[in-house]
């Protein structure tokens, strides 16, 4: 039987609850496919800050690097919100992404027929939405230098950051995006602000250059302000979207809210080599932590992405995806996706139900 | 009788059609309030490129500077999309904003009861939305230096921009935002990405400092990715939003699409002294140019903002606003906001109807 080592990073808030469900689901799906997992839980985020004073302990990063894949719950909370930058949970996440070199962040936004009513969009606008945002994750304004605080020529205080992309950075994310589009419906929309920003003009130039390798994929370009509108106007027009780190942060969250069920949405962050990082797109939801109210399905589906994109174990991934659909079809709903006529369950019970269908 | 000089910049696409309606409406509303206008039409955008080879001729900028207010139609079109940066219509707009020093861009997004069905959002989510985005317009990554193209340490080509804010820039936009919130419902939400960007941490620090002058306004902070979600989830939670240039570009467009009727939405750009710049938020819509199909109401309402914010002529502004509401109540609709049971009209006829109600 095959063996994989998985680093689990439960993190903060509802993180430990949803990770514990996903771990059980992974174990079961694995065992049915002849796969064994070696799980190692490591501290990260606010809980690591409380424990050892940094948001990403060295031991956590090196364990993650040595494993075959990393599954993260969620990080952050009011408690650490006012911390200095290097002591913020979010900084730990950025260090983890950088440390693992996971430059390609895949964020699907799918409206399941079972949950179409959860969207604030009209049914006819929301139904059938099935798009993928491919976000550049280790470059751009998140990591660009110079950055910091200083004074300008007039002696005024300033705060500044640098948006910067190099050829290899755009080329590699573009390739992931074209490959992704090719496996989906063959349409790729590159989002930028090339009518104003040089970094975006450069981005567009490289995306067009890489497009020559993918003549079968239909490439279009859209300005980011228009993309933010089009996601509201007619999200179905999109198949695969590729964009930079900050625009991807904004647009993928907007797209996820359009589905109305962000408690359902997984993500995968991949590098060229080494383990991928898999996490739900929702946050740590400190308000409902430790109350057995969290929706574990985004993390369960992140585990499915881990199997598919991280380990190439498509069969085990399919088992989990189908189990989630079965559970929804049976009418089980956590509070965030509850609607009349369904069965309201907590995090654990939702986990039990998924396990029954794996 | 009072006299004001107004620079009209019809621009490209549907620009001339909507400006011509707004001019007639201004003339009539003015004459009924004892105001006389001196209009001067100047070239700008793509049409200026075609005419004199630059998107903002010097004569246009100096005429604009000398006038009491500037009313712009729309700029841009496929024809000039591939131009080099300094020959893009958009560059002319940025030069105009910078030249006039209009650092505060006010973009209301209001769902009128008459048009609630135009929104792609469910009625209960869209109805009653009435928010104002205060966008910083002459700073940040749009204007920050250094910017351009180059090579990095590894000899790789790069494209880069600088996001930078100085104390006076944040302070003055924050003051406009607090004043705006005070005249509305007293709630201000400052949107940033202070969990990642130093420029945002600085922004937040200054907004908090300025807040001390406005103890009656309730200030909150939100990360931009969350704001993009909340606008979809529950736009009614917002009263006034203040944010930087690029986030404001994205969020104000998202907010406008939430109303479902961007053909209705005006904007005002104000400086500390000198004339303000008023323009519809929609684009130049080259597809429907010269077909008498454009919705002139966003430009008519921009003329109302010109009267109110630019000239302090509240009565004349009210006349125009009421005339627009009357016209909608009578059921007149251009194609973009048409729904069954109403009367479909073209740009000119819509103008005639508004004139009847001024
Ligand atoms: C927590 C934060 C640093 C992070 C980001 O901005 O990338 C989050 O919003 C995300 O999208 O994963
Ligand atoms: C045309 C473009 C330069 C402009 C901007 O980005 O500011 C437009 O999108 C706007 O919002 O007015």
Automatic annotation (TrEMBL), chains A, B:
<keyword id="KW-0460">Magnesium</keyword>
<comment type="pathway">
    <text>Amino-acid biosynthesis; L-leucine biosynthesis; L-leucine from 3-methyl-2-oxobutanoate: step 3/4.</text>
</comment>
<dbReference type="GO" id="GO:0051287">
    <property type="term" value="F:NAD binding"/>
</dbReference>
<dbReference type="InterPro" id="IPR004429">
    <property type="entry name" value="Isopropylmalate_DH"/>
</dbReference>
<feature type="domain" description="Isopropylmalate dehydrogenase-like">
    <location>
        <begin position="5"/>
        <end position="354"/>
    </location>
</feature>
<dbReference type="GO" id="GO:0000287">
    <property type="term" value="F:magnesium ion binding"/>
</dbReference>
<comment type="subunit">
    <text>Homodimer.</text>
</comment>
<dbReference type="GO" id="GO:0009098">
    <property type="term" value="P:L-leucine biosynthetic process"/>
</dbReference>
<keyword id="KW-0100">Branched-chain amino acid biosynthesis</keyword>
<comment type="function">
    <text>Catalyzes the oxidation of 3-carboxy-2-hydroxy-4-methylpentanoate (3-isopropylmalate) to 3-carboxy-4-methyl-2-oxopentanoate. The product decarboxylates to 4-methyl-2 oxopentanoate.</text>
</comment>
<keyword id="KW-0560">Oxidoreductase</keyword>
<dbReference type="InterPro" id="IPR019818">
    <property type="entry name" value="IsoCit/isopropylmalate_DH_CS"/>
</dbReference>
<dbReference type="InterPro" id="IPR024084">
    <property type="entry name" value="IsoPropMal-DH-like_dom"/>
</dbReference>
<keyword id="KW-0432">Leucine biosynthesis</keyword>
<keyword id="KW-0028">Amino-acid biosynthesis</keyword>
<protein>
    <recommendedName>
        <fullName>3-isopropylmalate dehydrogenase</fullName>
        <ecNumber>1.1.1.85</ecNumber>
    </recommendedName>
</protein>
<comment type="similarity">
    <text>Belongs to the isocitrate and isopropylmalate dehydrogenases family.</text>
</comment>
<dbReference type="GO" id="GO:0003862">
    <property type="term" value="F:3-isopropylmalate dehydrogenase activity"/>
</dbReference>
<keyword id="KW-0520">NAD</keyword>
<keyword id="KW-0479">Metal-binding</keyword>
<keyword id="KW-0464">Manganese</keyword>
<dbReference type="Pfam" id="PF00180">
    <property type="entry name" value="Iso_dh"/>
</dbReference>
